[in-house]
Design a protein that fits this description.
By secondary structure, the protein is of the alpha/beta class. The chain is built from 24 helices and 17 strands. The chain has four domains: about 5-150, DNA polymerase beta, N-terminal domain-like (DNA polymerase, domain 1, Orthogonal Bundle); about 155-245, Beta Polymerase, domain 2 (2-Layer Sandwich); about 255-325, 2-Layer Sandwich (Beta Polymerase, domain 3); about 335-570, Metal-dependent hydrolases (TIM Barrel, Alpha-Beta Barrel), CATH 3.20.20. The mean pLDDT is about 95. It binds one DNA strand through helix 2, helix 4, helix 7, helix 9 and helix 14.
DNA sequence: GCCGTTTTCGGCCCGACTGTTTTCAGTCG
């Protein structure tokens, strides 16, 4: 059983217990255990084999025993008993907007509803409004939300897509009269790989004016809710946006609040409580009712004696403790990147010439650029034959002459790891390349041992410098290969092979938790864009965000190194 | 059910909005 499957069971348990009316803290414990497993990074099977399940935060005796039972027997007696008592379809009913555990329990007990379809039928027949406390409007809203739930595409949107939408909305919000500041908050600001809805924050004197202007934006399809300080809307494309407007003097506390994560905020408020303060989006309040406003976010943290914690760390993964102890990482920043180690040109499936890619890199202030087109077997992507490779080498030299010393071009290749585990060029050809990037594109669905072995073999090849997009996943479209990540990280650390964080928003591979695990295993990373067009070089910001979420510092990222150091490292290898 | 240099028992974040009520519970983030 995989982390995700166990997490789903625990999350369903939480939902069902809540409907049953269990104490909320027990419910929260299961929910938290689910979340932790989902984002653990490590395979829970390995933790289990080590016998250290209880070292996982949020996992105590009771939940550890349940994980153990699941991994041993594939069953959980507690879960089976619970679902016999509370129909599991009610967990889906909770997904309907406006229906929480109390309401779901009443639908079940008073109307016999056990699944979404039954709820829809009951709503259509006007049965819901027969319950006390539920009127026609609630019934209509529930029906509307069921329909919205059914046509929902994937639920979450890719980070890159959400980023673009957010930038457009923010620039228009900033044009509204009296708006002093406008920023994206929420999971977008934390750079999560997908974003559920956009949280935008505005600092302005005239708040009603901002709210009115916002809901009148042409791309707003319907207003889901609206009050004195916030508005929630659905855009024409189905994406949901929340706008929070606050007085400028409260902007910092509001931004902190809206950025989350929820877990981080809970921890921070606990810390505030211990200091005799109460923290909300409006700032701090002491026991006598004295207020402390925070116009800037830094102040939210300094009041508690903490340094500002970067949003990418705010996931309740130990960042508050680290901040207290003065042990926050010096996170890698976009400006630290000196070059790019993985790009394509028209020589394979890129859309631009080597000159165009080089000029774009110069524009971004890079010191070096690796052109790494696909290897020969990847026919669909115009992979280069050995002759092509040599011709390209001459072309790169020619371009280098033309562009001068502003940028150093390096010839690499993204070499296919074939289905049988061999690399796509013989060793003597790999040796001629300045840098060799190995990656999987085919036969990703091989059994775990087989696909893992392909990677291990590539890592052990002395010519291979970087493994690109390790798992081959496409977020929401293609599952990652089934890999023994820990074995691969150990091998990469041992052979000094760099693992790529692929910055393309569809990939973000390594993902944050794997990247953190890689760093803890002693691996070095590269933040690459895999650009097929000059515009794609801008993906770097997402790769940097992912690296930050992994607590990465610049020295661990090889393309923060100056050219000389990079070349020395490459030279030290074969 | 978890967790601990204020606790191994007794705590466990905070406010806005909605709908249906006449003062509040439920939901959501």
């Amino acid at each position: 059983m995989k982390n995700r499957e166990i997490a789903e069971i625990f999350e369903t348990i939480a939902d069902l217990l809540e409907i049953k009316g269990e104490t909320i803290y027990r419910v929260v414990a299961y929910r938290r255990a689910g979340e932790v497993l989902r984002s653990l990074g490590r395979d829970v099977n390995n933790v289990w084999e080590e016998g250290s399940l209880e070292s996982i935060p949020g996992v105590g005796k009771a939940i550890a025993a349940k994980i153990d039972e699941l991994l041993r027997t594939d069953h959980l007696e507690f879960y089976e008993k619970l679902t016999a008592e509370v129909p599991p379809g009610l967990a889906d009913v909770l997904k309907v907007g406006g229906v929480g555990p109390k309401t779901a329990a009443r639908f079940w007990r008073e109307l016999g509803i056990t699944a979404i379809d039954e709820l829809e039928q009951a709503a259509k027949k006007g049965k819901l409004r027969q319950l006390s406390g539920i009127g026609e409007r609630s019934e209509a809203r529930i029906l509307e939300n069921i329909i919205a739930l059914k046509r929902q595409h994937t639920g979450r949107v890719l980070l890159g897509e959400a980023w673009t939408t957010a930038q457009e909305l923010l620039s228009r919000l900033r044009e509204i009269e009296g708006v002093q500041r406008a920023e994206a908050a929420g999971s977008l600001r934390r750079m999560r790989e997908t974003v559920g809805d956009l949280d935008l924050l505005v600092g302005a004197e005239d708040i009603p004016l901002v709210i009115q202007a916002f809901i009148a934006f042409p791309e707003v399809d319907r207003v889901l809710g609206q009050g004195g300080t916030k508005a929630s809307v659905e855009l024409i494309d189905g994406f949901r946006v929340q706008l929070w407007a606050h007085q400028p003097e409260r902007f910092g506390s509001a931004l902190q609040y809206a950025t989350g994560s929820q877990g981080h905020n809970v921890r921070l408020r606990e810390a505030a409580q211990k200091a005799g303060l109460s923290l909300s989006e409006h700032g701090y309040q002491d026991q006598e009712g004295g207020k402390i406003f925070c116009p800037d976010e830094e102040e939210v943290y300094t009041v508690l004696g903490l340094p500002w914690i970067p949003p990418t760390l705010r996931e309740d993964r130990g960042e508050i403790k680290a901040a207290k102890e003065g042990e926050l990482p010096q996170l890698v920043e976009l400006e630290d990147l000196k070059g790019e180690l993985h790009t394509h040109s028209v020589w394979s499936d890129g859309k631009s010439s080597i000159v165009e890619m080089a000029e774009a890199a110069i524009e971004l202030g890079m010191e070096y650029l690796v052109i790494s087109d696909h290897s020969r077997s990847l026919g669909i992507a115009g992979g280069l034959s050995i002759e092509d490779l040599r011709a390209q080498r001459a072309e790169i030299k020619r371009v280098q002459k033309k562009i001068g010393k502003n940028l150093t071009l390096i010839q690499g290749s993204e070499v296919e790891i074939l289905a049988n585990g061999e690399l796509d060029y013989p060793d003597e050809i790999l040796q001629e390349l300045d840098i060799v990037i190995a990656s999987l594109h085919t036969s990703l669905r091989q059994p775990r041992e087989q696909v893992t072995e392909r990677l291990l073999r590539s890592i052990k090849n002395p010519h291979v410098d970087i493994i690109a997009h390790l798992t081959g996943r496409l977020i929401g479209k293609r599952d990652p290969a089934d890999l023994d990540i820990e074995a691969i990280l150990r091998a990469a650390a041992k052979h000094d092979v760099v693992l790529e964080i692929n910055s393309n928003p569809e990939r973000l591979d390594l993902k944050d938790t794997h990247a953190r695990q890689a760093l803890e295993s002693g691996c070095r990373l590269a933040i690459n864009t895999d650009a097929h067009h000059p515009d794609h070089l801008a993906f770097r910001r997402f790769g940097v965000g992912t690296a930050q979420r992994a607590w990465a510092e610049a020295p661990s990222i090889v393309n923060t190194w100056p050219l000389e150091r990079l070349q020395a490292w490459l030279k030290s290898r074969v």
